[in-house]
Write a structure and sequence with these properties.
mainly beta; 7-stranded mixed sheet
Amino acid sequence: QVQLVESGGGLVQAGGSLRLSCAASGNILSIKTMGWYRQNPGGQRELVATISRVGDYANYADSVKGRFTVSRDNAKNTMYLQMISLKPEDTAVYYCHAMSITNFNYWGQGTQVSVSS
């Protein structure tokens, strides 16, 4: 089992910045890729960014490229999402995701990001 806990969400004005953190615990060695997803009320959960096991490869949704940066510190069992130039349309609940080597999906409880115009 893997437990994921997000932190760092909040309310920010458009153009501002936030950094989300996702602390992983439990069977850490079973984690393969990690990533961030987001979901608006009534909307589908969408991919924001993913990062490889050792952090040497990252993938981003087109809507956040150039503004968001995903990283992970395996020594601290933590993944980050640095968000700059935030837009009102970035408002959502952001979820941490981890996939195990057996392709089992783990999710955090989510953290709210609200961007005011």
